[in-house]
Amino acid sequence: MSMNILVRFPLPPVIISGRNRITIPRAKSIESSPLMDQPKKVIVCGGGVIGVCTAYFMAAKGAAVTLIEMSDVACAASGKAGGFLAYNWCDGGPLEELARVSFNLHRSLSEELDGARSYGYRALTTLSLTVKESEGSTASRFLPSWIDGPARSPKTIGTPETTAQVHPQLFTRTLIDRAVEKYGVKVEIAKLERVEVEEGRVGSVVVEGGRVLDADAVVLAMGPWSSKLTLLSSVFRVYGLKAHSIVLDPRDGSSITPHALFLSYYSSERGGALDPEIYPRPTGEVYVCGMSKEEEVPDDPAEIKGNPESIAMLKRVAKSVSSHLGEGEAVVKAEQACFLPCTDDGMPVIGEVPGVKGCYVATGHNCWGILNAPATGAALAELLHGHSTIVDLKRFSPSRFLLPTNLQTLRLCLD
Ligand SMILES: Cc1cc2nc3c(=O)[nH]c(=O)nc-3n(C[C@H](O)[C@H](O)[C@H](O)COP(=O)(O)OP(=O)(O)OC[C@H]3O[C@@H](n4cnc5c(N)ncnc54)[C@H](O)[C@@H]3O)c2cc1C
């Protein structure tokens, strides 16, 4: 895997002003009234954005939810991601419906939770640019004035109707706080060790130290750690792609306009293009990410550190794009890394684990987990009652990985 990718694929449409204008339907209303006479006891494992959205929507439908997280809510990718959202960038692929429904749910959640104030939800214009370090700076009348580096070939690839952003850590924490306050979700810091299965049905989970928590249903939302559980690794593989990011606080934040930037970046020392992304936030901070590479995921999220040369490259990108983001002009508030949860076919895995009634999995969301978390959670909340109507989950089912050899390993693991 090369050292440069955090590419969102397929490429977004180029917008030619005013023409391919899009009208986005409102989110289908999500039934939040309790559907159960006897609330189902659900344990959600993993306090990233996927686990938190699932806990929120399941509890809103009346389940008695406990979320267990081994470190801290939003301590991993869900706290360190860009938080970029796009309505139609997954069109034509298997994520189309999930992404469209989720984009709309983000908008309605933001209205409900005052997202603009509590987690920096806002609509954005999104540009693609080519930046070559070897070329001189150009002030283009097509670009906002803070982009004063050698930027060429600007294209509008998202409008405020089709692209938006959240601060992912604040989003995840706001949602879990609301789930606790409004729907009685319990949050426990505990590490899942195993799921106990009796006669093909989930019965309980065991956490580190041997404590047993009874459950009618369990959701495994452990991001890139999913493969550490044999129950899942016997069916499919989730691997981690380590990606880097920095957060800058420019002295003159007011000059930074709400434009997300997707770059083809040519450094004068490296061959080939890098694909970093730059997201200004409403607070005036600017988030820059890129530089990814497949690496072993450490057991403890707190042990994840950025590689110095990748962090240095992101600083160099920021400075080349804008003089406002260079050393002396901006304070570096964070230098960090985290892991994208990836699957072998590039698609998320959402659904019931084959052979284990009541055990669900939601992982492998790759570079679109912040976007696709609300629809994932809302669809799983419906699946708990038999069938998801807001998104067809069939294509995301873990059973797509079931080869006869996997089935054999899964049987051994359940015996
Ligand atoms: C640099 C970068 C930028 C990104 N930008 C965007 C973006 O702009 N837009 C977008 O949509 N997506 C983006 N993503 C992708 C997004 O961040 C991920 O897809 C998403 O955060 C995955 O969420 P998750 O809940 O599956 O995993 P995680 O956030 O990794 O959460 C998993 C949680 O499970 C916990 N856990 C693991 N094992 C156990 C256990 N045994 N017991 C208890 N708890 C456990 C972990 O501690 C962790 O908190 C980006 C990712 C990166 C790396």
UniProtKB/TrEMBL annotation:
It holds the Pfam family DAO. It comes from the Eukaryota. GO terms for cellular component: cytoplasm. Keywords: Oxidoreductase. GO terms for molecular function: oxidoreductase activity. InterPro entries: FAD-dep_OxRdtase, FAD/NAD-bd_sf. Residues 41-383 form the FAD dependent oxidoreductase domain. The keyword Oxidoreductase applies. This is FAD dependent oxidoreductase domain-containing protein. It comes from Phaseolus vulgaris (Kidney bean).
